[in-house]
Design a protein that fits this description.
One of its GO terms (molecular function) is acyl-CoA hydrolase activity. InterPro entries: Acyl-CoA_thioesterase_PaaI, HotDog_dom_sf, PAAI_dom, Thioestr_dom. It holds the Pfam family 4HBT. This is Acyl-CoA thioesterase. With 137 residues, this protein is of the alpha+beta class. It has one domain (3-135): Hotdog Thioesterase (Thiol Ester Dehydrase, Chain A). 23% of the residues lie in helices and 46% in strands. It has 3 helices and 6 strands, in the order H-H-E-E-H-E-E-E-E. It has helices spanning 3-10, 14-19, 50-66, and strands at residues 21-27, 30-37, 70-81, 88-99, 103-111, 117-131. It has a 6-stranded antiparallel sheet with strand order 1-2-4-5-6-3. The longest helix has 17 residues, at 50-66. The radius of gyration is 14 Å and the shape is globular. The protein starts with a helix and ends in a 6-residue tail after the last strand.
């Protein structure tokens, strides 16, 4: 799929849209997205909820892993939160580390506006035989 087709496909990710995530870049094995933290993203102690940060990381994981045009579904993720985020924009960047016909692994970094590392996620996907185009609306 072209980066434009991939970007258009992931506009249908209704959860990411609901959370307020904006996909900035999609390329083979890579993706970048942004989330501006507002009141709805804060937990009870006033910092960005882990689920909001995870959702941002998960979107770029999905985009990067599906960028080759084959349906890829997460089978395992591990996330480490390095620093609390309170306000401002967070950016997540996914990078493909390893790929074969059945599995692929990605490293995702979530950074704040000062480029401080907020979270680090590693994810593995199972690559199905289905073409992503078969799932276009």
């Amino acid at each position: 799929m072209s980066p434009t087709e991939l970007h258009d496909f992931f506009r249908n990710d209704r959860f990411a849209e609901h959370v307020g995530i904006e996909l900035l870049e999609a390329a083979p094995g890579r993706a970048r997205a942004r989330l501006v933290i507002d009141d709805r993203h804060l937990n009870a102690v006033g910092v960005a909820h882990g689920a909001a940060i995870f959702s941002l990381a998960d979107l770029v994981f999905a985009v990067a892993s599906n960028s080759h045009g084959t349906v890829a579904l997460g089978v395992n993720v591990s996330v480490s939160f390095m620093k609390a985020a309170r306000r401002g924009a967070l950016t997540a960047e996914a990078e493909e580390v390893s790929i074969n016909p059945k599995l692929a692994t990605y490293l995702i970094r979530v950074l704040d506006e000062d480029e401080t590392l907020i979270a680090l996620m590693q994810g593995t996907v199972y690559r199905k035989r289905d073409a992503l185009r078969e799932h276009l609306p």
